[in-house]
Amino acid sequence: MNIAVIGTGYVGLVTSACFAKLGHTVIGADNDPSKIQKLKNLQMPIYEPGLEEIIKENFAQGRISFTSSVSEAIKKSTIIFICVGTPPLEDGGADLSAVEKVARLVAEEMTEYKLVIDKSTVPVHTGEWVKKTIETYNKKKVEFDVASNPEFLREGTAIHDFLNPDRIVIGADSEKAKKLLLELYKDIEAVKVVTDMNTSELIKHASNSFLAMKISFANALSRICEKANADVNKIADGMGYDKRIGRAFLNAGPGFGGFCFPKDVSAFIHIADKLGYDFHLLKSVEKTNEEQKRFIIKKVEDALWVLNGKTLAVLGLAFKPNTDDIRFSPAMDIVSELLKKGVKINAYDPEAMENAKKVIENINYCNDAYGTMIDADALLILTDWEDFKNLELDKVKKLLKAPVFIDARNLYDPAAMKKAGFTYRSVGRPV
Ligand code: NAD
User: Fold this and answer.
1) CATH classification (class only), 2-195
2) What CATH code would you report for 210-425?
3) Does residue 431 carry a pLDDT above 90?
4) Active-site amino acid positions
């Protein structure tokens, strides 16, 4: 099939690459010309393991191309995936202006049947609005359908997730649209949940909010554990063996981040409010998440006393490992707060430093993990990159001014760290 993917960010690029790999002809379109220029030169604008290889292979086979003309992509394709950003507005709602723009453009450009599929994460009723918008501007009265097909990939394992999903959710009100989408995904073995658009949109918000709730639950537990002298990891293990609960997303840490959970939780609260329901459960999830960042900062204060003028070695800026994405990263928020308190930051992240430099200039960005530790008063781990799990502890001790080790990701064993001579602080585990 001929597919246009509008928006070539984390979701759009992976969607483009994977549909091309499945044998479809894909045009990726973006209104950021610098991104498209990079892609035309086969340079990746984002870091995502495995993406470059698939794009290069399918580019050579003529199955994938890129354009900065969204109109051109629409004209040449029957299937149009909307993968643009839906960032948060001041009031917590989702900014749907990019989605609306694409819908209007589709209406203006189409001369034959189009299936417009929303893959961006959007509040319930967005599909209905996309349909109304296209109807309004569709002067030529061309036939079209709108569908919802939310994306559940995780950055860092996005290719695998796209091609091996736990489920594919298809929300459409027309039989033709459902049939086309089932055909499109026929080579991916997964449960297909076929439903109406509103339900499909709510499945996505409900899923992300539920996962965020699990993280906030673990973080709340970590607070109790510190007061009760108990181990949050062991509690998560003990809970996780229960199949009704599951172990995933029960790790305590510095809070959730990224371009999904924070904005989706707040958009879900906002749309619930608009629909007349006060989603106080999710408001607590948000509040716990904010508190957790301050809880980590308090750990630094408790370890160093006076912060002004101290130097901190920070490992990790991305919101999670295996990505260069720093959007709503708790690590970035914590570092910003520490800078305000007069702390000098030496930081290292394997992939996220170029993005971080665009947001925070006054960090001393280092070439490797050990470089951050030279003459630093303490070490703070904020992202659980694999590289940070096996540091040479003797070297760390030698480089730091004092052996103060704050592990916001619970990567090390407290007893072993004590034995190694560190003042070691983690999250929700006995000192
Ligand atoms: P992104 O910011 O990386 O990509 C969005 C792209 O859309 C950008 O390249 C931007 O230039 C482009 N764009 C914006 N307006 C446009 C327009 N009018 N025309 C053409 N291009 C336009 O965002 P992302 O992380 O890929 O997320 C996209 C959507 O997918 C969001 O709704 C997000 O919530 C959802 N989502 C993200 C993830 C994830 O892990 N990042 C996972 C599932 C769902």
Assistant:
1) alpha beta
2) 3.40.50.720
3) no
4) 260
